[in-house]
Amino acid sequence: MKRILKYIGLSVLGLILLGVIAGFIANKPLPTGEAGPAADALARKMETAVNKMAWDSTRFVSWKFRTGTAYMWDKDRQAVVVEWGNNKALLRTTDQTGKVFVDGKEVTAAEEKQKMLAKAWSQFANDSFWLCAPMKAFNPGTSREIVTLDNGKQGLLVNYSSGGVTPGDTYLWHLNDSGLPVSWQMWVNIIPVGGLEFTWENWTNAPQPRIAKEHNGSLLSVPIIDLDFPTFSDSNNPLRPLWSGN
Fold first, then answer.
1. Which residue, among 225, 48, 40, has the nearest Cα to 131 in the 3D structure?
2. H or E element, residue 175
3. SS (H, E, C) 39-88
4. Cβ neighbour number for residue 93 with a 10 Å cutoff
């Protein structure tokens, strides 16, 4: 029995070492490029390709993330419904306040409520970025550079010095000739390996905002599921309790 446990332990250690070695090999240094009008123009070209104008005029968007977390976002009201498991949050995205429920019952205990709101905000900040990151190239705190890629084409490097839950993250967009993203590489605080690449594909069509519903990496896929652009009146808006007091 001890010999079997020893072999299991050695196998696990071997797998960990292989993972470390693979991560070291896959790790890529953060590239540097050139900031200025040309980089901004490339970012504007990407915005045009994804129909940012339609995105800006779209009020409601709903989807599910790969984890099963579901969202219904009222962009005009800057509020979102976040549902995971038997939990539900009505969250103001401006200040991360709101209401939370477990099994349909409102949570009023301050510590538990704040913990759930923080969880809802963290999920929304991450998952909505996979939804609409191309629309955020000029968000406050961003900077843009043009990078010459290995294939000789131009890539767009966008750094986020503020915003979200992990400020300081950087993304390198690979674009087709029309400016539509093909993939991105990531240098983010929560992942120790730099330069991991995920595709942006299976795009929705105009006149809707163009949203990529599939993101495929070498070890993981990040799908956008049940994407919809619903309409609600003020009376049946699911976020109404945030401002009506009900």
1. 225
2. strand 170-175
3. HHHHHHHHHHHCCHHHHHHCCEEEEECCCCCEEEEECCCCEEEEEECCEE
4. 19
> Residues 196-245: pLDDT tens digits?
999 999 999 989 999 999 999 988 999 999 999 999 998 899 999 998 76
Radius of gyration of the chain (CA): 21
The rounded percent of the chain whose pLDDT value lies above 90 is 78
User: What is residue 242's predicted lDDT score, i.e. its pLDDT?
Assistant: 92
- What confidence tier does 2 reach under pLDDT thresholds 50, 70, 90? very low
In degrees to the nearest 10, what's the CA dihedral of 94, 97, 103, 106?
-140
Cβ–Cβ < 8 Å for 23, 135: no
Distance CA 34, CA 19 (A): 34
Domains of the chain, residue spans: 37-244
How far, in Å, CA of 221 to CA of 239, rounded? 30
Find the angle CA(165)-CA(84)-CA(94) to the nearest 5 degrees. Answer: 40
